[in-house]
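Quiz preparation item.
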């Protein structure tokens, strides 16, 4: 099996990831790039981003979605109210969806799932209601299933995500303060039982104190916690 046949997941720091499927779809989730202190400076995005998935309206997740969508002609996929918000900011192609629903994006299906977190978008006119916070389960045709939890506390219905979608890879926030910390993320891992945990939302700022090594000590046997750095690529999945 060569890398060409597998999905590549590149961590762009914080909760921003680039997913590239074997068939060539390029998907960004929560593209907080310019203002992101942990964005790898020399990393160049592919020349064409197809889709941008947003978990919620906070600035460290919407990030550069609007300018990127405009320059790449990318489609922004988000909860209905947030999709409407970015459309009003001039994004031409949007897909508004809601919790529990699935949309087909090239060779990928994206299901919007629960998250326990607040959500609003701030701009020069103040705070705007942009729906609730969500996560995504990304299922790649002939490939793997990836759960990106967005910003969230641990919640019991993560067991439903396991029952319904059986994600092999879980991108989980571990930083604490604004999301779950390591103790809670370890319980989330027990509820989801992925093969691999890719930790995120830590280290960007000093208050996001969780670490992959710390989480690795707490997860059930058989679950691999990847100790990665922004710019690292996880593949072979
Ligand atoms: Ni948030
Ligand atoms: Mn956040």
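Solution:
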């Amino acid at each position: 099996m060569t890398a060409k046949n597998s999905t590549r997941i590149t961590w762009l720091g914080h909760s921003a990831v680039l997913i590239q499927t074997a068939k060539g779809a390029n998907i960004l989730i929560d593209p907080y790039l310019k203002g992101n202190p942990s964005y790898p400076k020399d990393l160049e995005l592919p020349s064409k981003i197809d889709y941008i998935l947003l978990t919620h309206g906070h600035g460290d997740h919407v990030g550069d979605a609007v300018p990127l969508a405009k320059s790449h002609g990318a489609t922004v996929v988000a909860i209905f109210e947030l999709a409407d918000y970015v459309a009003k900011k001039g994004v031409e192609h949007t897909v508004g969806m809601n919790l529990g629903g699935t949309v087909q994006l090239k060779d990928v299906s994206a299901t919007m799932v629960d998250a326990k977190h607040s959500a609003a978008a701030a701009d020069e006119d103040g705070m705007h209601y942009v729906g609730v916070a969500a996560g995504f389960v990304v299922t790649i045709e002939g490939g793997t299933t990836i759960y990106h939890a967005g910003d969230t506390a641990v919640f019991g219905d993560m067991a439903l995500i396991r029952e319904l979608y059986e994600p092999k890879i879980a991108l989980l926030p571990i930083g604490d303060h604004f999301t779950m910390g390591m103790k809670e993320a370890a319980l989330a891992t027990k509820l989801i039982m992925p093969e691999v945990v890719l930790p995120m939302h830590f280290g960007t700022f000093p208050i996001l104190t969780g670490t992959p090594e710390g989480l690795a000590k707490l997860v059930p046997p058989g679950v691999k916690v990847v100790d990665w750095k922004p710019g690292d690529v996880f593949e072979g999945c």
